[in-house]
């Protein structure tokens, strides 16, 4: 665990302790006559736990252990005291509920006493259902504040809509189709069908509060006309309730992952293992914290947007927006919410800042030291009159600074025209290189580039805006396909035994380090030929026919073969001379070899094993040795036909195939751990309903506009061939897998590796997924990039080698722009080379990271990948030499330039006035990984 993660955990525990102590203090204030019974309840539980430990471990408790047990007991009591009721027929189901503790019973009684006030309000609270949104069917809760107006959270509405410069437009989901939403006020306990009268389509998103506002509020319009004598809306209280007011949160809690709610058993006990249906959770209000109201009701993720109702008055006293396990439950306060509803905030256009920010107060602002007072005007622009974006006038003739460009990018992003999907600070071209003058780069899919560039502004705050064709990476990031997979159904809880540990191994082993294309196929072929009993494979792309033949020979020899594969393995055959028909061959193997051959396709998305890629490249043979690589099983990666004659012609002629880093390791401990994880991937995939036939993912079928950049120089040949290195001795190795602990295993270890660098850091990676907007908050990948930037600026020798124009997926110029904006000397620290697919890092010539992890948001968190950190100087120096060979033949990062006309390969193309482009599926693009 990295130091930053450790600090966060310590802080988290402290917050939980404060929350618990506040909860119990309020409990005692409400029940001063029960303090003795509470202490008796605590003491009896501690005694039971102490007795259990003595019986199991034969040791008694010391003072520290006793204090720890008391904390555990207190936290458990806090959780137990807040029941969660099913809502059935618009009221509370009193049978299917878990009631633990006196206050829990009292809250249940109080809830039933308020039936006359609250039951008529239940049909005004609903679940926000979605279609064309991959992986999930609802995004949160909403409730009516007017006849056809629903209030929910900003972070809920952001999942389904975005500002396009004129209005909030519905985002695109599966296969590019717009997301559709509805409010269902049913979805109750044991609903078999939903009454159509309780289902209201969302016709438009009216208002989403800005990200920099502390109030997580949004308003939607639904197609509804109230009838009858029942209430048409929930009434919001003008005043915030006092602390310890009895309230109930009504919404649709969703199952929470084990990393968010560690006590899964208690969660299942309280929620009866039923989620996504309407629930009522009573509790009490707590003191305000900053701008947020707080309460202690039991909530889960789907409660976002839930109403907080006062049991005594039936008024809404909060809009629930966040809950942290054993830390806090936060809501938009009643007084704020009343103001928004009273002013009908959904009917006003956004306020756009169109001038420079005010100069801070001080001598120059007053004009008494040569400065001049600056007048700032904020103009509200109505949606009806806005065409494109307001352009800030500036009297200054000096070029904009980096700070100017960053402020302009932020403002432009917040009010970007429809079609702009990414905004970042870029730098101009200077004599064929990336220069120093900043501008705002606005990315637009190529097919819409002309239109958006025509209606969009030419500058903001005096900073020029340049409209550029979006990369595939940016188009994928803009789709909700990835947003839907911010949580997955990976089973960390099933991998807690020593058989699955990812702790370092320090044992005798044999390591064969080698690089491709020089020796990729030679070593892999020999390694596979040695299999006598079993082969277990986790693989992203398996297309190569030579590898197919090698595996088939092992199956013929009686070897068992198990494979967990990605959807991308099952794309159409591109080159029949080098690829095989996967469906036909696998069906044949099942018929011929029966139970000795099995495979499954890992399911993706929120209900899947991984987010969007089973990207691992690992083969375990006979449970005692394994091959691990950055290279897929295809002709360009792990199976290039490189002969000894080809190697002899180096350095006069380059070798064909990607640059890849591989290792073969003979060590039963590591081999069994990797095998166990792949086996469990198969088991979990089956539990999640996966089949052997590939279910084409929404991501793979997404159509994107692909531009061809002006080709860079061909990759020069290496100065020499790097022979494989064999090490036979004690070696320390740390295995790293994602999505274990949602990427924390990989991220903590790699940040520690980066921070350990004292002299040098050499990083070879195809691309780094840079932020696509000034508002991006992406977790692990941002932390990794921050650590890398620090070393690029401070170490005597820190260099990054990216892939150049062979990939249509990303643009190395985006990385160069970002690094430059952070103060990195990109001229000496950054280079690019064609056809490299390595994902490796060498630190101080002593430690080396090697594996399959791409540096993208999902790549370092929720995709299946495998890497190793070798703490061994000989292995590290071997791959450092491979890096230096490539660095010597690499080039500078070029400004972005495009093919303006002509045909892109053999594909059908389109042309705009700016670029030529092809419209392809993401699966077709990702054939190059």
Task: Describe the structure using short key phrases.
alpha+beta; Thrombin, subunit H; 14-stranded mixed sheet; globular
Structure description:
The structure is a single chain. With 929 residues, the protein is α+β, with helices and mostly antiparallel strands. It is 29% helix and 24% strand. It is globular. The model is unreliable at 1-7, 352-396, 480-485 and 902-908 (pLDDT under 50).
- Report the helical percentage: 25-40%
Total beta strand runs: 37
Radius of gyration: 30 Å
Give the structural class: alpha+beta
Instruction: Summarize the biggest pleated sheet.
Output: 14 strands, mixed
Mean pLDDT equals: 84
Uncertain regions: pLDDT < 50 for 5+ in a row?
Answer: 1-7, 352-396, 480-485, 902-908
The main sheet orders its strands as 24-23-22-25-26-27-21-29-35-34-33-30-31-32
CATH fold-type name of the domain at 85-347:
Thrombin, subunit H
Compute the number of helices: 25
Overall geometry: globular
Distance between the termini: 30 Å
Q: Percent of residues in beta strands?
A: 15-25%
- CATH architecture title of the domain at 85-347: Beta Barrel
State the CATH class of the domain at 85-347.
Mainly Beta
């Amino acid at each position: 665990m990295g130091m930053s993660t450790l600090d966060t955990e310590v802080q988290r525990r402290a917050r939980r302790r404060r929350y618990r102590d506040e909860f119990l203090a309020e409990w005692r204030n409400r029940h001063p006559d029960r303090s003795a019974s509470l202490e008796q309840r605590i003491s009896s539980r501690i005694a039971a736990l102490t007795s259990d430990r003595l019986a199991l471990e034969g040791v008694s408790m010391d003072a520290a252990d006793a204090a720890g047990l008391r904390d555990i007991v207190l936290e458990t009591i806090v959780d137990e005291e807040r029941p969660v009721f099913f809502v059935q027929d618009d009221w509370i189901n009193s049978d299917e509920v878990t009631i633990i503790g006196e206050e829990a019973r009292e809250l249940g009684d109080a809830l039933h006493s308020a039936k006359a006030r609250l039951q008529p309000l239940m049909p005004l609270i609903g679940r926000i259902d979605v279609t064309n949104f991959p992986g999930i069917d609802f995004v949160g809760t909403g409730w009516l504040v007017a006849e056809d107006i629903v209030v929910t959270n900003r972070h809920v509405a952001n999942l389904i809509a975005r500002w396009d410069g004129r209005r909030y437009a519905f985002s695109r989901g599966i296969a590019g189709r717009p997301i559709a939403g509805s409010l269902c006020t049913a979805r109750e306990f044991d609903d078999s069908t939903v009454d159509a009268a309780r289902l209201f389509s969302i016709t438009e998103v009216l208002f989403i509060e800005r990200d920099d506002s502390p109030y997580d509020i949004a308003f939607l319009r639904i197609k509804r006309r109230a009838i009858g004598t029942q209430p048409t809306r929930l009434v919001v209280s003008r005043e915030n309730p006092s602390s310890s007011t009895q309230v109930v949160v009504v919404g649709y809690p969703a199952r929470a992952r084990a990393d968010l709610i560690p006590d899964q058993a208690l969660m299942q006990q309280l929620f009866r293992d039923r989620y996504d249906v309407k629930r009522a959770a009573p509790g009490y209000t707590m003191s305000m914290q900053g701008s947020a109201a707080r309460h202690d009701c039991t909530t889960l993720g789907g409660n976002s947007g839930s109403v907080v109702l006062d049991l005594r008055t039936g008024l809404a006293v909060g809009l629930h927006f966040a809950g942290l396990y054993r830390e806090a439950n936060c809501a938009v306060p009643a007084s704020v919410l009343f103001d928004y509803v009273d002013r009908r905030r959904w009917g006003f256009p956004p306020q756009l800042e169109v001038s420079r920010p005010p100069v801070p107060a001080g001598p120059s602002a007053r004009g008494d030291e040569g400065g001049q007072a600056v007048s700032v005007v904020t103009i509200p622009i109505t949606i009806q009159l806005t065409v494109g974006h307001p352009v800030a006038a500036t009297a200054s003739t000096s070029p904009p600074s980096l700070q100017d460009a960053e402020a302009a990018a932020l403002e432009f992003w917040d009010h970007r025209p429809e079609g702009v999907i990414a905004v970042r600070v870029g730098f101009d071209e200077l004599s064929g290189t990336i220069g120093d003058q900043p501008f705002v780069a606005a990315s637009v899919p190529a097919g819409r580039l002309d239109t958006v560039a025509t209606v969009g502004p030419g500058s903001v705050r005096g900073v020029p805006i340049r409209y550029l064709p979006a990369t595939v990476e940016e188009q994928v990031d803009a789709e909700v396909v990835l947003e839907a997979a911010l949580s997955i159904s990976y089973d960390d809880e099933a991998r807690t035994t020593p058989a699955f540990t990812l702790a370092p191994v320090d044992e005798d082993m044999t390591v064969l380090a080698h690089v491709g294309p020089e020796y990729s196929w030679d070593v892999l072929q020999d390694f596979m030929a040695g299999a006598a009993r079993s082969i277990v494979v986790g693989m992203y792309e398996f297309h190569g026919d030579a590898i197919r033949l090698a595996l088939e020979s092992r199956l013929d020899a009686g070897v068992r073969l198990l494979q967990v594969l990605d959807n991308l393995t099952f794309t159409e055959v591109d080159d029949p001379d080098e690829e095989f028909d996967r469906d036909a061959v696998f069906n044949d193997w099942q018929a011929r070899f029966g139970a000795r051959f099995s495979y499954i396709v890992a399911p993706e998305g929120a209900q899947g094993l991984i987010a969007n890629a089973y990207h691992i490249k690992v083969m375990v043979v006979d449970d005692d040795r394994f091959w691990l690589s950055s290279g897929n099983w295809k002709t360009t990666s792990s199976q290039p036909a490189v002969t000894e004659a080809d190697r002899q012609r180096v350095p006069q002629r380059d070798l064909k195939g990607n640059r890849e880093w591989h290792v073969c390791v003979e060590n039963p401990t590591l081999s069994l751990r990797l095998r166990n994880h792949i086996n469990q991937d198969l088991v979990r995939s089956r539990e999640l309903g996966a089949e052997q036939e590939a279910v084409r993912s929404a991501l793979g079928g997404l159509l994107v506009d692909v531009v061809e950049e002006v080709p860079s120089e061909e990759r020069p040949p290496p100065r020499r061939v790097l022979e494989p290195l064999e090490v036979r001795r004690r070696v320390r190795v740390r295995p790293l897998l994602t999505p274990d602990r949602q990427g924390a295993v990989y991220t903590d270890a790699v940040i520690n590796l980066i921070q350990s660098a004292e002299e040098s850091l050499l990083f070879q990676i195809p691309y780094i997924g840079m932020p696509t907007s000034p508002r991006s908050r992406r977790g692990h990948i941002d932390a990794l990039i921050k650590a890398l930037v620090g070393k690029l600026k401070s170490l005597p020798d820190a260099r990054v080698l990216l892939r150049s124009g062979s990939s249509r997926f990303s643009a190395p110029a985006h990385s160069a722009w970002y690094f430059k904006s952070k103060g990195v000397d990109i001229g000496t620290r950054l280079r690019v080379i064609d056809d490299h697919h390595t994902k490796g890092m060498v630190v101080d010539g002593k430690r080396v990271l090697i594996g399959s992890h791409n540096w993208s948001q999902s790549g370092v968190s929720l995709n299946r990948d495998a890497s190793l950190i070798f703490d061994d100087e000989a292995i590290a120096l071997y791959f450092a030499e491979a890096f230096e060979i490539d660095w010597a033949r690499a080039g500078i990062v070029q400004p972005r330039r495009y093919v303006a006309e002509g045909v892109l390969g053999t594909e059908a193309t389109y042309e705009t006035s700016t670029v030529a482009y092809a419209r392809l599926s993401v699966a077709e693009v990702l054939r190059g990984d």
